[in-house]
Amino acid sequence: MTERPQAFSHALHSGYHHPTLRAWQCDAHVSATNLIYPVFVSEDKDCKEEISSLPGQYRLGVNVLCDHLEPLVRKGLKSVLLFPVVTSTPKDARGSFADSADNPVVLAIRALRARLPALLIACDVCLCTFTSHGHCGILHDDGMLDMKQSPQRIAEVALAYAKAGCDVVAPSDMMDGRILAIRTALHASHLENKVGPIFFFHLHPSQSILCFQVTVMSYSAKFSSTLYGPFRHAANSAPKNPSASDADSTDAKPAPVAFHRRQYQLPPGARGLAMRALDRDIAEGADIVMVKPGMPYLDVVRDCKERHKDVPIAVYQVSGEYAMLFHGSVAGAFDLREAVLESFTAMRRAGANIIITYFVPQFLDWPALDDS
């Protein structure tokens, strides 16, 4: 049975079932609790490969992941956001490997849960890394998005990550309706609840559900941006450009049309459209919403905070922002620590509760910025 979106927006427990999630519901200065560290998980289990486009960041296999993160946890790391890197497994049009038990993210969830049980595990949910065409949803034969199948497929992947043991699913695909689809899938799972006998509306008391033990953090206002370039290299997730050769020569159907992610990610100047996307995802039951990229879009963070004062907001300081700050400091333009902490302060001032940033390892070693 499909619930009305308004019903899921009244379910509060999924937003604060973990100590770090509870901290995100509170206003505070910048601390390690406010930060999420993005981590690229390679399907090569023994991989530890520095990413040339993101100096100081690595593609990590599941066999080395915990060893890499454990020292950071000892320093105060609270949360990671996992991204899969698929290079050898064959890809297909629907991203079949995305919810496989051998998906590197699924393996990483289980390894981290066993070795670092206090770490909050968030998982990016998308199809682009797994599909042969490199887009974030399912495509029709003509190359356009299938808006019926795409949200359901995203929900299947989110459910696989939830069953593997993650704390947060974070859909980044920007498909219409995927938050409701994910909430409905979690609701229908009827899995044992980790946090106790919490029940939802009309369900029989014998049915405890995954809907309350997994947080949904939506990439709600994800803008089409050139600042994603280093990430796409790191995750091997750049979209492919279809051509006439992609069509079956024995089929009378036309070749796929040229298609770009800007057709489903938000236009950079679309402030009103961003608010509609944020409103929609909150109505469908998102526990946390996100604005991405960070610094160029802090006006949208402020708009959202003023309209939705009680909803935690994440902001993603994306790969291009990291690269600009890193290389600017290497060139001697400014001090890296001061520039990064200033950017964090600006994000918090705008209203962000959570900052997703590649600078977490450095932050954990830096002393606090002296405001004087």
Quick synopsis:
Helix content is 35%, strand content 15%. With 372 residues, the protein is of the alpha/beta class. An 8-stranded parallel barrel has the order 1-4-5-6-7-8-9-10, surrounded by 6 helices.
Brief descriptors of the model:
10 strands, alpha/beta, 372 residues, eight-stranded parallel beta barrel
Topology:
Blueprint: H1 5-9, H2 19-24, E1 35-42, E2 48-51, E3 54-61, H3 62-75, E4 79-85, H4 104-115, E5 120-125, H5 149-164, E6 168-171, H6 178-189, E7 215-222, H7 229-235, H8 271-284, E8 288-292, H9 298-307, E9 313-316, H10 319-330, H11 336-350, E10 354-356, H12 360-365
Parallel strand pairs: 1-3, 1-4, 1-10, 4-5, 5-6, 6-7, 7-8, 8-9, 9-10
Antiparallel strand pairs: 2-3
Helix pairs in contact: 5-6, 8-9
Structural write-up:
- This protein is α/β, with parallel strands linked by helices.
- It contains twelve helices and ten strands.
- It has helices at residues 5-9, 19-24, 62-75, 104-115, 149-164, 178-189, 229-235, 271-284, 298-307, 319-330, 336-350, 360-365; strands spanning 35-42, 48-51, 54-61, 79-85, 120-125, 168-171, 215-222, 288-292, 313-316, 354-356.
- An eight-stranded parallel beta barrel has the order 1-4-5-6-7-8-9-10, surrounded by six helices.
- β4, α4 (104-115) and β5 (120-125) form a beta-alpha-beta unit.
- α5 (149-164) crosses α6 and α8 packs across α9.
- The longest helix is centred in the middle third of the chain and has 16 residues, at 149-164.
- It is globular, with a radius of gyration of 20 Å.
- Residues 191-209 and 243-258 have low confidence and may be disordered.
